[in-house]
TrEMBL record:
The chain crosses the membrane at residues 12-41, 61-81, 102-122, 200-216, 223-243, 274-294. Residues 167-251 form the CAAX prenyl protease 2/Lysostaphin resistance protein A-like domain. The keyword Transmembrane helix applies. InterPro entries: Rce1/LyrA-like_dom. One of its GO terms (molecular function) is hydrolase activity. This is CPBP family intramembrane glutamic endopeptidase. Keywords: Hydrolase, Membrane, Transmembrane, Transmembrane helix. The keyword Transmembrane helix applies. It comes from Mucilaginibacter litoreus. Its EC number is 3.4.-.-.
Length: 312
């Protein structure tokens, strides 16, 4: 992998990274609100803020807001950091193109069998209660999650197959690309350099990734997902298996929601009590085995020099 000539410390790199993201995020959020106001009217912005989605223009406005205020800044920030600040995009974005196809196959099965484990962590997460001293914070988190849930459900009201395809592309593909470039590309690369330990970097990044979504009651399952994506990147040296895994997770959720809405299945995607204890144990064991297989396949392709030199 190409080495950067930039000698900036990892701590300063992280500071630059956060400042770049914050700046781009603020600018594009202002732009997104202005665009929605100019195109659909500023009254609609107030309706969205009040979670009033009765206006038929709400859904296209939410699509525009999603792309401009969330997806674009999440994608643009690591690109600016990797290409123009550090001038080492391969090193900080992990955009290698030559990835062994079998890694995508193993990643697919890893995501498939991780579902029971994710459900278990979600159920555990739902039982967590903050101390009474933090009851105000807990109340705010519940309100925030409910607001986010209502916005998501407004977007996911799919009347046609075309609506499903749009959401698979927007929520499944674009979100996967943007978030993986931000977290597993830029951020995890910085933490690998800072901690000199790939496992620490993976789990720290996964924790930031999960916290970023501001959904306390989904923190643990999203932490696991972030770690899986992190290992996909760390062992392969490429961002693309993680993008693939992230896309599978998001895209499957969209399709499952569409099928449930149109009564093609009785399985509610929001049901968190599908599997039993045996399923949880089986899921844990198989996920670990698949990660070991993934690592061996990746190492066979890359050779020991890459693992020792790049990942520490």
């Amino acid at each position: 992998m190409k080495r950067t000539v930039n000698q900036t410390s990892p701590g300063m790199q992280l500071l630059y990274f956060v400042v770049i993201f914050a700046g781009i995020f603020i600018v594009l959020n202002i732009l997104g609100i202005l665009l929605v106001g100019l195109i659909y009217g500023f009254d609609l912005i107030m309706d969205i803020a009040r979670l009033d989605f009765t206006n038929p223009k709400t859904v296209p406005a939410l699509y525009l807001l999603q792309v401009v205020t969330t997806t674009l800044p999440i994608f643009t920030a690591p690109m600016v950091f990797g290409y123009w600040v550090m001038r080492a995009p391969e090193e900080y974005l992990m955009i290698r193109h030559k990835v062994k196809p079998m890694l995508f196959v193993v990643a697919f099965f890893t995501m498939l069998v991780s579902s029971p484990l994710i459900e278990l962590l979600g159920n555990i997460n739902q039982q967590l209660v903050l101390p009474k001293a933090l009851s105000g914070l807990e109340r705010w988190m519940k309100q925030s999650e409910e607001s986010a849930r209502r916005v998501t459900m407004a977007i996911l009201q799919m009347q046609t197959v075309w609506d499903c395809v749009k959401n698979v592309f927007l929520i499944g593909f674009l979100t996967a690309v943007a978030e993986e470039f931000l977290f597993r590309g830029g951020m995890q690369s910085i933490f690998v350099k800072w901690t000199r330990n790939k496992h620490a970097a993976i789990w720290i990044t996964a924790a930031v990734f999960s916290a970023f979504h501001l959904e306390f009651y989904g923190f643990l399952p999203r932490l696991l997902l972030g770690a899986l994506f992190g290992y996909f990147v760390a062992y392969s040296g490429s961002i693309w298996p993680a993008v693939w895994g992230h896309f599978l997770n998001n895209g499957t959720a969209v399709i499952a929601t569409y099928m449930f809405q149109h009564k093609h299945t009785k399985l509610n995607p929001d049901d968190q009590h599908i599997f039993n204890f045996s399923g949880y144990i089986f899921s844990l064991i198989i996920v670990i085995i698949l990660l070991v297989v993934y690592k061996k396949i990746a190492e066979a392709k890359q050779g020991p020099a890459f693992n020792g030199e790049e990942l520490g």
